[in-house]
Design a protein that fits this description.
heterodimer, A: mainly alpha, elongated, B: mainly alpha, MetI-like fold
């Protein structure tokens, strides 16, 4: 009988855990966590008690301080006697850096292609859309693996490959938004004034479609973190001596039975971060633009 | 007539995607270096290298090479695996049953948990059932599959010692990877099922069904679910890519002897014939699935086929 009674005018979004007080606290916690992660990423050099590569073979696999370990190593040490907390801090920096730079790469490339498709129409549009369809129908993860296999792994290539994740969504989104905008009065008016197309797109249309693109960035960002950490976890992404959250968890996998603390904290950071971004992103979307239906879909 | 055209359009699109996948492999292979030195181990004698050069027609022009490449790909000739000197296709196909087994089990778990949680959440909207289901959905959505896999091993294999954590020797080995794979994707399915069901539950025909005095189960099973199915089928189809990516990770963590584990190893060892075979196989799988999903749409909702295709 609950079906018919549950039809209030304003339908709540799936993420909103209803009752008024709790979600706000949850969102606050998520924001606090994200700020913490960002500050750790920025201030890694000052926060880390040890250099992340510093080995101390006498202190291998020491348990965290709260499990009776040496208080000098708050989260214990790994198989090479490196301080887990310091490595966690630097790994966080690496993963956050890749996610931020990667987001910019994908958003820029995709948006640009979307503009090109919408401006030139015809054959240019067809070619771009064929590639968009191709990317959309192939799992990105597999493509990334193939590229890394064929070209070998280095940091710059890895960054670009990971960054391209989701470009097709930006391209498709931008194209349809620009087509829509081009048909609207303001674009027509400026065009009649003889303004150069690039100026129209950059100064007038882009600001108008920006909010939708930003929403897409918040949707893309956690997935980017997952792609990077997955590849690094498999040993096919960030290579030692550099470290990332995925690589740390991957290395910790070998010590699961004896020293779980070498990997689990990194996994926890990934989980909490993607969770926080998803929740805060949904909340922001709801606040910024209630007309947006994306969250519901 | 409409139906034939619909099917033909979809078929052409699928073939185009396949062609692009082959082209992608071809271009990447050519750009990344001399195919022969890439495809053969470093210590191959020069005579054999020359032989391969002639055999692959590398003295020909690029367009000719391209046609030859497609031709041999069509014949399943994708080079020899570096590790054992057998055709890459044979080596890869041997692993297909294991991956299918894991994939199908994971998929069933996804569908069962996802549909159940989503429908329960929609019917009991606003209650703790709904909240729990949606919390689970967010959890599944944010949880990295490899971290869940590690936690499963830590709990079920190491702490409680209930299930084996690596290999594919017995049925027991199937449980952890299948459940991990299932849970990861179930969250998304639950979310979509819920919103799709909510949409449907408020439709007039649902009220009519209730007015007719039909039971709740009947109303949900034969009136709500068929109508709510389309977005869910879409998501399941779209999730296949995610499922494949997830399977790669999950197979690796649990050392499940399937294609995913093989791909990761092949990438690590730069066993390129195997990598390109798997990439093309994945492309083929995706195209076939998309095709089936498209046909399912038409079957679920005949209106779709007759709708003119507005967006490109």
């Amino acid at each position: 009988m609950a079906i018919e009674q549950s039809a209030p005018a304003a339908r709540s979004r799936w993420f909103r855990l209803k009752s008024a007080g709790r979600p706000r606290l949850l969102i606050m916690l998520c924001i606090a966590w994200l700020i913490l992660v960002l500050m750790v990423a920025i201030g890694a050099d000052y926060l880390a008690p040890f250099a992340y590569t510093e080995q101390s073979l006498l202190n291998r696999l020491k348990p965290p301080a709260f499990l009776g370990g040496n208080p000098k190593y708050l989260l214990g040490t790994d198989g090479l006697g490196r301080d887990v907390l310091s490595r966690l801090i630097y790994a966080t920096r690496m993963s956050v850096l890749i996610a931020i730079v990667g987001s910019m790469i994908g958003a820029t490339v995709g948006t640009l292609l979307g503009f090109l498709a919408a401006h030139f129409r015809g054959i240019v549009e067809d070619i771009i859309m064929v590639f968009v369809d191709f990317q959309a129908s192939m799992p990105f993860f597999i493509i990334a693996l193939a590229v890394l296999a064929f070209f070998g792994n280095n940091f710059e290539l890895f960054l670009v490959v990971v960054g391209l994740y989701g470009w097709e969504v930006y391209a498709r989104l931008t194209r349809s938004l620009v087509l829509q905008a081009n048909g609207q009065g303001y674009a027509f008016a400026i065009r009649t004034l003889g303004v150069h197309p690039i100026r129209i797109y950059a100064r007038h249309i882009l600001p108008n479609i920006m909010s939708v693109l930003i929403v897409q960035v918040t949707l893309n960002f956690p997935e980017l973190i997952l792609i990077e950490t997955s590849l690094s976890f498999l040993g096919l992404g960030i290579q030692p001596p550099q470290t990332s959250l995925g690589l740390m968890l991957g290395e910790g996998r070998n010590y699961l039975a004896t020293a779980w603390w070498t990997g689990i904290p990194a996994g926890l950071v990934i989980f909490l971060t993607t969770l926080s971004i998803s929740l805060v992103g949904d909340w922001l979307r709801d606040k910024l633009d209630p007309t947006l239906k994306i969250a519901e879909a | 007539m409409m139906r034939l055209q619909f099917i033909l359009t979809k078929l052409l699109r699928g073939l185009l995607t396949l062609l692009l996948a082959v082209t992608f492999v071809f271009i990447v292979l050519r750009v990344s270096g001399d195919p022969v030195s890439m495809m053969l181990p470093d210590d191959t004698p020069p005579a054999i290298v020359a032989e391969y050069r002639a055999a692959w027609g590398l003295d020909k022009t690029v367009p000719e090479q391209y046609v030859r490449f497609i031709w041999s790909a069509l014949h399943g000739d994708l080079g020899y695996s570096f590790r054992d000197d057998r055709p890459a296709l044979t080596v890869v196909l041997e692993r297909v049953p294991m991956t299918l087994l894991l994939g199908v089990c994971g998929f069933i778990i996804t569908v069962v948990i996802g549909l159940f949680a989503g429908i329960a959440a929609a019917l009991k909207r606003g209650t703790s059932v709904d909240h729990a289901a949606m919390a689970f959905s967010i959890f599944g959505h944010s949880m990295p599959n490899f971290f869940l896999a590690i936690l499963m091993i830590l709990l079920f294999s190491m702490t409680w010692r209930l299930l084996p954590s690596s290999g594919g020797a017995t049925w027991w080995h199937l449980i952890l990877p299948a459940v991990t794979l299932g849970i990861i994707n179930a969250g998304t399915v639950a979310r979509f099922t819920r919103s799709s069901m909510l949409e449907v539950l408020h439709q007039p025909y649902m009220r009519t069904a209730r007015a007719k005095g039909l039971r709740l189960t009947r109303r949900v099973m034969s009136h709500a679910i068929p109508n709510a199915a389309i977005p869910v089928v879409t998501v399941l189809g779209l999730r296949l890519g995610g499922l494949i990516a997830g399977a790669v990770v999950v197979e690796t963590v649990f050392a499940w002897p399937g294609i995913g584990l093989m791909l990761v190893n092949a990438v690590g060892q730069r066993d390129l014939p195997v990598v390109q075979t798997i990439v093309l196989l994945v492309a083929l799988t995706m195209v076939i699935t998309n095709f089936i999903v498209d046909l399912t749409y038409g079957w679920l909702d005949p209106r779709i086929e007759n709708r003119p295709n507005k967006e490109g």
